[in-house]
Fold this protein.
Amino acid sequence: MSWEEWARHDAVALAGRVRAGEISAAELAAQAAAGIALLNPSLGAVVEVFDDVVADPLRDGMNAQGCFAGVPYLMKDLGPTLRGRLQEMGSRLMRGNRAAADSHLTGRIRQAGLNIIGRTTTPEFGCCSSAENPEVYVTRNPWNLGYTTNGSSAGTAAMVAAGVLPLSHATDGGGSIRIPAGACGNLGLKPSRGVFSIAPHASDLTGLVSIQGCHSRTVRDTAAFVDHCRGGAPGEFMPYWMPAEPYSDLIRRDPGRLRIALSHEWGDYRATPHFVRELERIGRLLESLGHHVEWALPAVDFRAAFAAQTTCYISNFAQTVANLIAPLGLERPPEDQVEPINIRIWEAGRNISYTERARMQTVFNTTSRAFGAFFEEWDIILTPITALPTPVLGTTEYLTISDNPSVLDWFGNLWKNFAYTPLANLCGIPGLSMPLGWQESGLPLGIQAQAKQGNDGLLLQLAAQIERALEGRWNDGKKPGVHVTQG
């Protein structure tokens, strides 16, 4: 295909052409690999291309009869493992680390007919807002190469936005699907808890603040991905639920008249005036579609909620680091191989007590109940995806290469910008970033919709209604300057 033709296809459309015999899965993989070769020198978004799978899409067990019929797909270098493949997690410490087996979700992705052709960039262990350590790699925003993509699903955000492929893997422990989607002009759904399995790992409720998902450019691609990749593995410690009907069917109908709350005052955190105006503008768009829109906010103790979330992150990441260094025979993370903030997180969290975790769990409970009560009255709450503009590259205060001596201060600084996404992880509720707004820098601004637990389908229904109203022209139909169609 020409690149213009390629960029007009979403994953569902590409799969349709494969099933019609117009193109093969190998040809799709070759074109995606060519797009990576063309743009990755500028974007720094792909760590590795699996040349053997590009040549033979069936090599690793992809189901050619699956929904996506061999559409090429990139896996974030974090989370689900690929048997025999490197997984280095953005870390010098993990260079050369190979997975012994596929994760459960990897199997579901292959069964859905997605051809995993490589891996995308992430900050070290997924723990910061940008894949930006010059000693590892620097991932750049295709809308303006002087800016970050945000993170931690950095490479996925850049590759999907640049038109290299229509669908790619992402993970979200506090906004890592939604925030980079918002800065790069993609759709990014963080689903509810109990949708995607992370088996065989993290059989612990607080471990499930981190959720799997994808970036896409169309609602139907995201819906199809969730429909065909969801579900629990044997031995899950919690239920994995199914909706009443597939989302691919649900999104064909508009939702009824919704009660939609707008908010940018999230405890101590406020969005910039420009972001507030963009939120209000999208609120008027939703009113024009027949929905009731007004300002409202859950009755949440936001200070307590963010403190509990911080405790969760520190203790979880500390154990992640501990579990990675133990097989290497190390007593502490080496300073020449692990980034400074991640070492400080390990130091702060390795001895957190059960009592502290129990207090954290109590706040998780009260916060979740407060959001639950709010969603008895409101269907959706809408916020900007971030409170502050996307940082330029080299803004180290948000990075784990920061020299900030205080972990608590470092996390507190994160919340000033990335305030609106983490509590959805704490509560297990869905959040969707939609490419509807613009930053003063010219970068996209995602507008986030959140709903009660299990109402993922309603978010996709609303997004599909908006997509139809816009005639499919997310980002006002604009493309980033670095894009496959630009050569």
Observations:
- Residues 275 and 384 are 7 Å apart (CA to CA).
- The first strand starts at residue 46 and ends at 49.
- Residues 302-325 form the longest helix (24 residues).
